[in-house]
Each structure stands twice: as C-alpha cells, then as structure tokens.
Write a structure and sequence with these properties.
Strand order of the largest sheet: 2-1-6-5-4-3
Structural class: alpha+beta
Distance between the termini: 51 Å
Radius of gyration: 16 Å
Order of helices and strands: HEEHEEEE
Strand content: 35-45%
Low-confidence stretches: none
Mean pLDDT: 94
Number of strands: 6
Helix content: 10-25%
Number of helices: 2
C-alpha cells in the first residue's frame, strides 16, 4: 500500500471515530447505525454490562432510544489507527464523557461535574466496494465510570 493511500485510510477511519461522537452528542443518535457495515457490532463486554448490539436496524433502535433530555459531550483523544491492508484497519481511541439527564433548554449552561465515563474504544474497520470506510465493530472498554446525574 502506498503512503498516500495509507494516509487516506487513516484519515477516513479517524473521521468515523469523530463522526460517531458528533452524531451521539450533537446530531441524530440513531444515525450512528449508518457508520457501521450492515452486520456491524457495538459491544460493551464484561466487566461491563455485557451489552452486544448487532446489525444496523438494532443499532438504530439502540442509539435512537437515548433519553430525550440527555445532554452529553464526549472528548476524543489518543486516536491511533493501524491500517492492516487496503481494505482493513483497526483503531484505539480514548474518550471522556460528560453527561446529564433531564436537561432542557431552560436549564441553560450546566455546572461542570467530573466526567461520568473515561474509557477507550477498540474499533475494526472495513472499506466497502464503493470505497467508503465503515465500522465492523466497536468495543467499549470502561475502566472509569459512574451513574449519569439527573438535573
């Protein structure tokens, strides 16, 4: 694989990582499903709560079920994409989540509290026949976490 193609693949995968959290925090959470291959998987294995969501329809329902009054912001860092071939890549990225439930526009700015989660994502990517990079799987690892506060 030539260096320019490797850079393009890395950038496309990094873009998916950022697009994922933007859609959750600022956009339409259910649309996260479109970032996955049709049989894509999102999972939070033990010692997490053992969640596993597979397939775009299930992913759309899962992420679309986010509470209406949830306000969140995820901070992504330490993104490391490893391109394995012209059509496959993996990545690890760190995230920090600030989140509250019960937020309404009338609340205005929310006083800062410590993050409710700090963890990392382990991702597997595949390039489609159309040349687009998509998530095959995203595994959440959460060494630091607590309940979401209610306003």
């Amino acid at each position: 694989m030539d260096p320019l193609e490797r850079l393009r693949a890395e950038h496309a995968c990094e873009r998916l990582i950022v697009d994922f959290v933007h859609r959750l925090d600022l956009g339409d959470p259910a649309s996260v499903a479109e970032l996955f291959v049709p049989d894509g998987v999102w999972q939070w294995p033990p010692p997490g709560d053992g969640r596993r969501v597979e397939g775009r329809d299930a992913l759309r329902r899962y992420f679309g079920s986010r509470p209406a009054g949830r306000l969140s912001r995820r901070v992504m860092s330490n993104v490391l994409v490893t391109v394995a071939s012209a059509d496959t890549a993996t990545a690890t990225s760190y995230f920090t989540t600030y989140r509250v439930d019960g937020h309404a526009a009338a609340h205005g700015m929310v006083p800062p509290d410590p993050p409710v989660q700090v963890g990392d994502y382990a991702d597997v990517f595949r390039r489609t026949g159309e040349g687009d990079w998509l998530l095959v799987s995203r595994t959440l690892r959460l060494p630091f976490g607590g309940p979401t506060p209610e306003l």
